[in-house]
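Dear colleague,

Following up on yesterday's call, I've attached the two folding results inline so they're easy to grep. Please treat them as preliminary; we haven't cross-checked anything against experimental data yet. The first protein's sequence and structure tokens come first.
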Amino acid sequence: MTRVEAYLDHPVFRLVSETVGELGVRAFVIGGYVRDCFLGVPNKDIDIVVESKPGTEHAGIALAEAVAAKCHSKVSVFKNFGTAMLRYHGMEVEFVGARKESYHRDSRKPIVEDGTLEEDQLRRDFTINAMAFSLQADDYGALVDPFGGIRDLAAGIIRTPLEPEQTYSDDPLRMLRAIRFAARLTTGDLRFQIVPESLRAMKAMAPRLQILSQERIVEELNKMLLTDHPAMAFELMEETGLLPQFLPEVSRLKGVETVDGKGHKENFTHTLQVVENVIGFEKEAIAEGRLNDYDADGNATPRTEPNLWLRWAALLHDVGKPVSKRFAPGQGWTFHGHEVTGARLVPKIFGRLKMPLNEKMKYVQKLVNLHLRPIALVDDEVTDSAVRRLLFDAGNDIDDLMLLCNADITSKNPAKVTRLRRNFELVKAKMAEVEAKDSIRNWKNPISGDYIMDLFGIEPCNTIGQLKEMVKNAILDGEIPYTFADADAYMRRQAAEVYGLRPKEGGGRKADSSAGEPASE
């Protein structure tokens, strides 16, 4: 045992130590808090496992209530799970009795029985998460590490206490957790590795993921995407055969097909590079205060945390390529319309994975659908009309779209990347110029449906929407200025020429109350 009292200087640990002596039980800090102490990572979530005498029920709950009484803290009890939780001086402390577990093959829900500390450690997922600190007075701060977790942590190794086949068969979610921890704990100085026997077990047991709920799988995926190394996680999931079990659309990006000696870009590797690029660009933009988040009313607040859904958009931006891939003799491989195909796949993927189908899904779908538009502006002459259209279609998501498109510029030719990024900056400058002049990002049609009905004395019909669309297109194409007066005059001309409509006497008085005025007027 190694003494590490310095990691237990928070007053809650002394309180627990004092109380276990009074109750005649034994308690240990276990799991993530212990691991993160050695990594030097702050962790305010403390798990305490309580070892009691045989026949003692709910030892964890009893200890929590006794500690709470001493520190005058409220305790939350979850009797169905045999756990209790309290908050004290900024720490969230959860208590549970030591236990051992067994599983049925068709379920990841364990059969739980009271157990010893050693049995509790044995049921843990990985050696680095099975370490414990003693809270007993006679060996306070001693490290209890029967499986060499401290050694594995120093070496950057993810290993299971039991044989990996048993660990992953008992709870298949642990396969995804192993990959997530490898990605999360990897640093520039140390790349965490999953031991070969674990990787072999994952390949053999990949179909066991089918017993998991989609929600639990997505929870792990989201945590992987929010690490600094999601590409590493997705490479491992593809290598072990886990990825096709729940995201076959991304897995199908893998590989290169060759016809007549011509191959296409390896889209799986490209996609993961785009995800990594997005992370770097977003971090830089957040640090420089160049990114905002918007509420439903369009109010902006500076972004301070990574946008998970931007990372999902990067991951899915090319999922339409396997479906749209074609080989044209004399031309090579094409992926025409893959952005439209990919956008159609987004709600299907979200629905299958039980992910939100609200504005978050629509945001991802929008970015997938639009991700080629700024690139097209790089290659073509940049017109005010094209920029207005892009600003209108992207709305307040334009900055994230531009970040994604910049991240999408990948090539093994550094000169090509430099040239495209230089041109991309010209497009951004043009967008800023148009935005400052026309306020298209928060564009609102100056002509409302109510105004048209009142002006011409007509009931709701398709003509109203068609007239509004004419006005919108005329403004976005630069045919008329973005003002109510110009839009009104244009709409009246079109109404007369195309539909034979004439204003009724006294019509159009709803203009002031229902027709929007642009910010630039």
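Below is the second protein, in the same order (sequence, then structure):
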Amino acid sequence: MADHRDYAAYKRRLARILALYIVGLCAALGLMAWAERKGLSRQWLGPIFLFSTVMIYAAIGIYGRTADAEEYYVAGRRIPAFYNGMAAAADWMSAASFISLAGGLYLQGFSGSDTEPGGLAYVMGWTGGFCLVALLVAPYLRRLGLYTVPDYFSLRYGGRWPRLIAAFAAMLCSFTYVVAQIYGIGLIASRLTGVQFEIGILLGLGGVLLCSFLGGMRAITWTQVAQYVMLLLAFLIPVSWLAYKQMGNPLAPLVYGRQLEKISAMEKVLMASPAEKQVQEEYRRRAAEYEVRLQDIEGSLRRERAAAQQRIRQLKVENADSAHIVAANRELAALPRDPAAARELWTRALHESHQRSQPLGGLLPHSQPFAGDPAGTPAERETFDVSRRNFLALIFCLMVGTAGLPHLLTRFYTTPTVREARSSVVWTLFFIALLYLSVPALAVLVKFEVMQGLVGISFDALPSWILQWAKVDASLISVTDVNGDGIVQFGEIRLGADIIMLATPEIGGLPYVVSGLVAAGGLAAALSTADGLLLTISNAMVRDVYCQEIGHHVTPEQRVILSKFALLAVALVAAMVASLKPADILPLVSASFSLAAAAFVPAMVMGIFWPGATRAGAVAGMLAGLGITVYYMLVNAPALRAILKLSPEPQLWLGIVPVSAGVFGVVLGFAVTAVVSLLTRRAD
């Protein structure tokens, strides 16, 4: 009875602290808005948002520092369901959800295409995945009182190989995921402070380490609660503002359908526009030019290099302006270094030119169910089938991957009881729904702003934010006068998925303080997920591999210290990889879900619900599922195909794109686990 009263008092104290934090955050936003109206420069507002929010999280991380193993790994198992749900939602709503999800819907429409599935698949897959977590996994893992996901495989199946494979898979999928988060941190930090992208990564990385290095799961939990409040405000304020600006009603999820009808009408006008067709024709010409180059790569590269050198010599002979000479030298330096690099670059440019030579710059009509036409030509029917198949495959991988992500499952080890573990899943769904219901609305509202506000204006009147974002990363945004008429056409606008949410306030003409808030929210989303991922990787390295295989006599306190230094090392390596900009955020995150689904879910679920699952079956199933998934992703990676001098066209099975490779891995994993378990049941 005394324990119950103490726990109730503990929850009341937490509620007071949360209420004070929310009030203080709203007051700070009001103060920043007042300062902007009084003339505070944007050059100050951005850094203030960055450093003040990072310092809040750092202060919580320092306050939550601990060397106790129970506190470091599972926060003492005393996090109430409400706050664990909030922390899990922040852990879940990574840079992919906050930064890229609305961008994916903007670019792919509701259903995506045959080559880029997405749209509502991300919303449905990620949300539905929590139903699997609640029904199949979370309560059962919490009942065992473990620390990490590999602990489960060690306990259920025994022996070293199930634990080692699980630890390796946890490191692989978590590292892929954390690279995407650190990439998002670099984008936001560089935009807010004006520093280079690589320096922005290091600035944000400092915030990650301050949150997770000292206090582990205890500190991460409470920083994630604070980060959830930040990212929720950062998402709902601009989408509500845009809805009110466009339709006079801030409840965006309820009213954005009217703008969808207007977008459909605008799309028909754009598809019939002669100026848009001129843009499409120019991209077709460029695609044909790249096809010619790819027929003789070495010869084309020599001619390109010779032409660039001749241009530099000609400019020097004419005593041209130094700026023109510098630009010509940059063009020469930007040429591919060797034929392999040229093949990769020109193949990518060929695909992009082909895509942008289509109506609407290659984008599908926003509300079109799937690409192709089920009643059209054989090619259109095939496209429709492949598009629908990829849509369903991505939903499957995201749902099943949710049930296998180690950093997410570890969150449910932190509750006091199994009942609270179930309740925290429900709270997580609630907190995610608050944001996810507005994501489709935001994509529609931003597309309306672009079609209404950018298309048709003069290039001389382009807003300054386009140039500023292009300086951060030229792949994020470009607006080029392709047909030379001096007027912006829709096909001349290229927006990356990672720019839509971050640039929403500027696209909608909102005050800069809202831009700072959105960037702070994106930073909170990336930091919250990066914290949990880095902790998962370091725990797998130290607790599940080193301490089990090498350091058998390491004390719990020494394990914590080793985990902290492993976390630091992994963070630095992830930052180095992220600085190379390997891919957009959304594909990287989707790939990590496929890896987690294939590696963990078959053996985990069968281990929970089928007593006949054996150690040999689990090992074979995990290796087969993970192996086929990794193989399918690598063999269809454009860079690897270029290195191996394979055909640039990917070799797809059933038309399934590589990010959904987990659909093959999960099916194979279940089948292999079942068959090998039946064959080895007596021996095991």
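For the second protein, one point worth flagging: The chain has a mean pLDDT of 83.

Best wishes,
A.L.
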